[in-house]
Amino acid sequence: MAKVVMRGNEATALGAKLCRPQVIPAYPITPSTMFPERISEYVANGELDTEFVLVESEHSAMSAAIGAAATGVRVVTATASQGLELMHEMLFIASGMRLPIIMAVGNRALSAPINIWCDHQDTISARDCGWIQLYAERNQEALDLMIMAFKIGEDKRVLLPALVGLDAFVLTHTMEVVDSPTQEEVDKFLPPYKPDHVYLDPKRPITIGSFGTPEYYTEFRYAQELAMSKEAPKVIAEVFKEWERTFGRKYQMVTGFECKDADIIFVTMGSMTGTARETVKKLRAAGKKVGLCKITVLRPFPAKELKEVLGGAKVVAVVDRSLSVGYGGPVFAEVAGIFVNDAKKPIIQDFIVGLGGRDILVKDFETIVSKCETTMKTGKPEKVIDWINVNYEPAGVK
Amino acid sequence: MQDQNCKVVSPKELFVSGHRGCAGCGEMNAVRQVLLAAGENTIVANATGCLEVASTAYPQTSWNIPWVHAAFENAAAVASGVDAALKALGKREGVNLFAFAGDGGTFDIGFQALSGMLDRRQKVIYVVFDNEAYMNTGIQRCSSTPYGASTTTSPAGKKSIGSTGSKKPIANIVAAHDIPYVATATIAYHVDLKKKVQKACKIGGPCFIHVFAPCPTGWRHASDDTIEMSRLAVETGVFVLWELEGGYDPSKINVTYKPKERKPVIEYLKGQRRFAHLMDKPEELKKIQDEVDAKCKMFGF
Q1: Residue A58 and residue A67: Cα distance in Å, rounded?
Q2: Kind and range of the H or E element at B84?
Q3: Which end of chain A is more exposed for a tag (fewer CB within 10 A), N or C?
């Protein structure tokens, strides 16, 4: 292991490189462009032996990734925002064909208005595509999760694609000291990818991506669901444990901080977690029983783990950095859903904050806490779905 | 009449019967010819369309070679990934890699992926099976549909002559990418077709073959007239058989079959009900004939 200062994009590119991907189709997009740039440098310098395919769109990036993975090789790519949306169709297909493609996504807002800064709308909008979704809080996590993603996705019990989300600019372009495993260590951790379920070879002609009639389609989907919801959690737990044993860094699907006796618990994803943690420390010092629950794995959805961490709270404050227009926060909807059949449950509130790169500050978390304290007093939230830090008056209202 | 020195390399059928293609389907016939010429050491990346739907209803398949399908607009991109992966595995030599797509998946929605693949000089032989409309969804007009054809989205009527565009010259546009081999072919001239496929296999790629494949269901002709329609398209000059080797030099276009005496276009149009509404419109028929004459002049006959 060696300590290196690097940006988030450099961490994902390095993580990818250490996994010896055989094909990398990529298309540049802010804030992930540095990924193909670094890869092209590795190739140009002879540091990485891979087929780097400079495709003409993100749709073709994922299509080429599918073609390559269906030929039986390890494939990685990166994108963000509009690029992920352009791939959207192919995301379902990669998963449905059970191709463990790995992708770094610099979490960025979606147009319109066009905006290059951080929120989670892109990957949140891809929740239903059948990809394992891992979210990094820091560059160290981006690197570690990138390597672990291969081991999880390629496991024969799983065989699903996986993406690692890292916040636009806050992580992608920000320097951090990262502990980098050596090539030997990664080679030991991650065996070569040798699929036996699909690969194109004239010596063994098979038909991949066939037409599924109503007699068979449901079973394909059911098998995919079992791989994600039954097998992937087991494999993720194993891989996280092995990672901790090997590299000393602990990962959990959901990580609680100061939650045991907490009345109010934030639920966060990505880089906002660091700010939330500082807020918790500050408020704990002031005697307030506040805790934090970080989601690292959103798919498969960690319902059991979330319940363990959140079950004892009085108010759960889900902090959503994305929006399902006409509903509210998507993470809120999912967290609320885990308590649906329970008689005893915390009050769950949604706070939509930090869209399109607006900073999420300690004072925003303090505002959330003061709203939750009011809820504790009254027993009912004033607003179930609330927006923090919005400067807007509807037209005609003065 | 045809040069017979083309060997069918595969003693084994590589695209087998039992598929769900319509009776008299030109595309299924063409696919069989292409694969017989290419041989067993072949991989196909297929676009969504009639061919994919009709040949791969799970758990059955008509393909005796490795075959992959992902979506509609991206056969060229999927094939690009296969090309890269074969290289990475050290298994690229000796394998013919094809992208198969229909005209909708090539002229229209797949055009960008096709252009990208050609630009990257991927070792892919792209074959478009052109039946001149979106046939899989039920005969909708696309940019391959010829002038005057009645389709379900360009129906002939009191105020409509049918499709108003003129067919996009896809092979010429592809040729302008300066790739090593571009050809046109059709099923009635199957030796010519096979020779072109074998030439492409020898070159490796990127190569492009535009295969004209009549569709009895969409063109509304008798299902036993498919080969006849293919032949008439060539004999009238509606479809010209040519090839271009060694990059983009239009002066080097080689017409591989010239009809001795070109038949009038009406001979081709009258057998297809998609053109039936033109039969009492001499000015439209003349317009179509004039356009074909101009095109044939361009090709030197």
Answers
A1: 14
A2: helix B75-89
A3: C
> Which residues of A are less than 8 Å from B82 in CB distance?
67-68, 70-71, 200
Report CA B51 to chain centroid distance, whole Å. 12
Give exposure, A324-339, as e/b (b: 16+ Cβ within 10 Å): eeeebbbbbbbbbebb
Does residue B106 contact residue B64 with C-beta atoms inside 8 Å?
Answer: no
Helix (H), strand (E) at residue B102: strand B96-102
| Separation in Å, CA B144 to CA A180, A207, B173, B212, B219 | 54, 29, 13, 11, 13
Options 3.30.930.10, 1.25.40.10, 3.90.1100.10, 3.40.50.970; CATH for B26-298 is 3.40.50.970
Contact A66, A93 (CB under 8 A): yes
- d(CA A27, nearest CA chain B) in Å: 12
Residue length of chain A:
398
Quick: pLDDT tens for B239-275.
999 999 999 999 999 999 999 999 999 999 999 999 9
Determine, for residues A216 and B67 on separate chains, whether the beta-carbon distance falls below 8 Å: no
8 Å CB contact between A58 and A30: no
* pTM score, whole prediction: 0.97
Which is nearest to B278 in space by CA: B143, B89, B180, B150? B150
Q: Is B20 on the interface with A (CB under 8 A)?
A: no
Q: Bridge partners of B255? A: B242
- The C-alpha atoms of residue A216 and residue A218 are separated, in whole angstroms, by 6
Note whether A73 contacts B113, CB cutoff 8 Å: no
Say what the pLDDT of residue A393 is: 83
Q: Which residue of chain B is at minimal alpha-carbon distance from A89?
A: B71
DSSP A313-359: -SEEEEEESS-BTTTB-HHHHHHHHTTTT-SS--EEEEEE--GGG--
Tens digits of per-residue pLDDT, A132-163?
Answer: 999 999 999 999 999 999 999 999 999 999 99
Strand order in the sheet with A162-167: A76-79, A102-107, A162-167, A132-135, A297-299
